[in-house]
Design brief:
By secondary structure, the protein is α/β, with parallel strands linked by helices. The protein is built from 24 helices and 8 strands.
């Protein structure tokens, strides 16, 4: 097998027992309470509230335990309700791509039994809900606020607030999801429905074969957990963060000319009032409006395509072509669980602080955006379905050989189990940075994952360091196995330290501690791991920190020296920064 697992991931427990012995004392979890038990005489609504509470407490509970307990509670609650015999799936489910329609993936939307996939979807929505809440309350971008404060009839007071929230959520996404290279969609050498039985496997869509491709290698919850993703994965995070705040955000694309047809991706667009405001997750920038001011709408781009000229750089022109702009598709992000009757009932019964958006009404979104200038049609986006197919295949591929298993462990093993790094991520998403009484915050738990370099360097040779980490050679563990375990422990401890150092910089930035953020990005990430996993993200976020500190020269220098997948956008940001500071 030749797939590169640096570009693939899916959460499952295949290698959990192997990794359990590799989790290190320096990154161990806090003692956590036992799961709450349920009694038979509790009202049905209590079961629902307990279920969502388990998913709210992932910093305290093991992931699989929390999902299992939540499902048990949700099932008990759902058992007290009856499905609506008049319910029908959204009409757009009949208009999906051929692969989606023929796969049968939408056949159980009316089923009255929650699946494990449903619970993963609820857990994902809880993370997105929590992030969107605290991020949407942050201070707005001052330049955008000044532009919106100018006398104009373009937006109502509510629409101004919606656009400010969209910009905050977009900015958080760009800063927190490091951009990976976006793969080309794998070629299908035989057209669907042709050829004999010997070519049947070749006609199966690539995601169903476990072949890596654009956007579908991991779902939004894993994009968040791991902190990186390609253009489409980044876009899905932004879209779904917006959904939790009541915003309709779609992905714009151009009709594909391949067989079978596949849309050519462009960017995300937030429907505010009667306009689509443009945000490009590859550039990491909202599309600037006329004269480089504000955020452009699709109407403005169609009226004057030269608005996009500001996005040309010395490396390449931005595009798209005038011909492509004549026909634009709006792609709607809707995974199967978001279209089901059972999830709609759950959503309708979550209120107040537990209110979480779990479903999508694609026809309503389509009706809205198709009234806007330039949109020729609105369809379901295939990526959410392809993600599920790929995830179903990935465990088989990982288990196919010891080499594949170790590749997967190297890429994602540090996130298995319930160590301090994973707990810190949960608290990070909740915006719980500081200690809460006796409970640690994200900062404290990230710090526990940073074993001193002297200990890391001596881990394989020093019995004292090994003892401090709670490691000892088993009675039946041979020298070879013991040395291998020490080497793997050092690998995962080093990796955990790199992740924690970078994420501490992001926490400090969002907490307003800009000098501290700069130190974490520069001294403890870029200088200690110059070719580490967060080089691109740390360089970009250090530049953003310098911008916030008013050190525009250092910020520009960092943008200009970037060679990451976001290079073009960073060159444009440097150019825009030069213009803004010259005015």
């Amino acid at each position: 097998m030749t797939h590169n697992f640096d570009n693939t991931c899916s959460r499952f427990t295949l290698i959990g027992s192997t990794l359990a012995c590799l989790l290190l004392a320096g990154c161990q979890p806090e003692p956590r309470p036992r799961p709450r038990t349920q009694t038979k005489d509790e009202p049905a609504q209590e079961h629902l509230l307990k279920g969502i509470d388990y998913l709210n407490r992932l910093d305290e509970l093991e992931y699989s335990i929390a999902l299992g307990q939540a499902k048990y509670s949700f099932d008990r609650w759902l058992g007290e309700h009856e499905p609506d015999p008049q319910w029908q799936p959204d009409p757009m489910t009949k208009r999906g791509s051929r692969d989606v329609r023929e796969s049968g993936i939408l056949n159980d939307l009316g089923d009255w039994a929650l699946t494990f996939g449903d619970m993963q979807a609820v857990q994902e929505a809880v993370w997105l809900r929590d992030i969107s809440r605290w991020v949407s309350q942050k201070q707005p971008n001052t330049r955008l606020q000044a532009w919106l404060d100018e006398p104009a009839d373009r937006l109502s007071e509510l629409e101004v607030e919606e656009l400010l929230i969209a910009e905050r959520l977009f900015d958080w996404t760009i800063r927190n999801i490091q951009l990976d290279r976006t793969l080309a969609y794998p070629e299908q050498t035989v057209a669907p429905g042709t050829g004999d039985a010997s070519t049947a496997q070749r006609r199966v869509p690539p995601p169903q074969q476990g072949i890596p491709g654009p956007g579908y290698q991991f779902p939004p919850r894993e994009t968040l957990l791991y902190g990186h993703g390609d253009i489409l994965q980044r876009s899905r995070v932004f879209i779904e963060l917006g959904r939790q705040q009541g915003l309709d955000i779609v992905f714009l694309a151009f009709p594909g000319r391949a067989v079978p047809p596949r849309p050519k991706p462009w960017l995300t667009a937030a429907a505010i009032g009667n306009e689509l405001f443009l945000f490009d997750c590859e550039l990491g920038l909202p599309i600037p409006g006329p004269d480089g001011i504000g955020i452009a709408t699709l109407t403005q781009v169609l009226t004057d395509p030269e608005v996009l000229d500001i996005l040309d750089s010395s490396e390449r022109d931005y595009g798209p072509t005038p011909e492509e702009l004549k026909e634009i598709l709006a792609l709607i992000d809707a995974a199967p669980s978001t279209l089901s009757q059972r999830m709609k009932l759950v959503e309708e019964n979550l209120a107040a602080e537990q209110r979480t958006i779990l479903t999508v009404a694609p026809s309503a979104i389509a009706d809205r955006v198709k009234k806007m200038e330039g949109i020729s049609d609105a369809v379901l986006w295939s990526v959410p379905f392809e993600t599920l197919w790929f995830q179903a295949e990935l465990p088989k591929l990982v288990a196919a050989s010891p080499e594949n298993t170790w590749q997967y462990q190297q890429a994602f093993g540090v996130f298995q189990g319930h160590g301090a790094l994973v707990q810190a991520r949960h608290l990070h998403f909740r915006g719980s940075f500081e200690e809460r009484g006796d409970l640690p915050g994200a900062k404290t738990l990230y710090m526990r994952c940073r074993l001193p370099n002297t200990a890391l360097n001596e881990l394989e040779s020093s019995p004292e360091v090994q003892k401090r980490l709670g490691m000892r050679q088993g009675e039946r563990e041979g020298d070879f196995m013991w040395k291998d375990r020490l080497a793997r422990t050092k690998f995962f401890q080093t990796q955990a330290k790199q992740h924690a150092s970078y994420w501490l910089g992001l926490v400090q930035f969002d907490d307003g501690n800009l000098e501290a953020a700069a130190a974490w990005f520069k001294d403890r990430t870029l200088e200690l791991s110059p070719n580490g996993p967060w080089t691109a993200g740390a360089r970009y976020n250090l530049a953003r920190t310098y911008e916030a500190l008013g050190d525009y020269q250092q910020a520009r220098e960092l943008y200009l020296e970037d060679d990451s997948p976001q290079q073009h956008g960073n060159l444009i940001r440097a150019k825009l920064l030069t213009r803004e500071t010259a005015d």
